[in-house]
């Protein structure tokens, strides 16, 4: 039994999770105080973990955190929307010592990781990967485009004996949302141009909708318009799928996964963008690699953060 923790910019959620991926205790949720400084946020995390541990014989804790995470040192180098206002200016977290602070108050092993990476690990272990797929890429579609890559031992030469999450140097991988898909294209939230997130993040999707004559405030509204049979809305989703599929094809070429899973709230519009995304992926990828890939909707949508963090904690055991 472990405690999985999902730290977000608004709330921090935690629950006890069994080795089979079943949430066996109440889902505890508290404000994360993410914009009130590191001390306030860390206090909220401790409180939430202790509440989730009540009456539970937990052996380890995993925590999913957005941003650039150094799991080995237990440091958060940067996290979006986490920080505090100083002299009128909001300052993001920079190199916040995280795990060592929690360890002083909670007497259990604690491991942290990037939330998208851990969502991929949870999907691999408890979702479409069934803990046996030869490589899985998870793309989470929402305000931005998150991603995570899990590679099985069969995908790696060198003697590894269990599935591993690709984290790159200093824990900075895998940012597939920032693959360049259009040279000199739309400006991304990171400041660069032509990235996948510039087209398949919420802002990019709404721009596509506007170009098709549909003004809406959220992906949900565009989804609902498509459900009414609105041809312009359906066409907008198809354009969206084309951009997404181009990035998927590049990812297939780079990592040759068995599964590409699509998660996040935008994945609910799956049927409107999947055909075009699949076509674009097939055109952008090496045929012999594409023929062995399954593009699927992620099975773990609601509790992806908690289950991913739990999968990390279980792996550490």
Task: Reconstruct the topology from this structure.
Layout: E1 2-7, E2 11-17, E3 28-31, H1 38-53, E4 60-65, E5 68-70, E6 75-78, E7 83-86, E8 89-92, E9 96-97, H2 99-103, E10 110-114, H3 115-126, E11 136-141, E12 145-151, E13 164-165, H4 196-200, H5 202-211, H6 219-227, H7 231-255, E14 259-263, H8 270-284, H9 287-290, E15 294-297, H10 304-316
Parallel strand pairs: 1-4, 4-10, 11-14, 14-15
Antiparallel strand pairs: 1-2, 2-3, 5-6, 6-9, 7-8, 11-12, 12-13
Helix pairs in contact: 3-10, 5-7, 6-7, 7-8
Observed structural traits:
single chain; 317 residues; alpha/beta; Nucleotidyltransferase, domain 5; 2 domains; 5-stranded mixed β-sheet; 36% helix; globular
TL;DR?
This protein is α/β, with parallel strands linked by helices and 317 residues long. The chain has helices at residues 38-53, 99-103, 115-126, 196-200, 202-211, 219-227, 231-255, 270-284, 287-290, 304-316, and strands at 2-7, 11-17, 28-31, 60-65, 68-70, 75-78, 83-86, 89-92, 96-97, 110-114, 136-141, 145-151, 164-165, 259-263, 294-297.
Write up what this structure looks like.
By secondary structure, the chain is of the alpha/beta class. The chain has two domains: 2-118 and 303-316, Nucleotidyltransferase, domain 5 (2-Layer Sandwich), CATH 3.30.420; 131-297, Nucleotidyltransferase, domain 5, CATH 3.30.420. The chain contains ten helices and 15 strands. Strand 11 and strand 12 form a beta hairpin. Helix 5 packs across helix 7 (231-255), helix 6 (219-227) crosses helix 7 (231-255) and helix 7 crosses helix 8 (270-284).
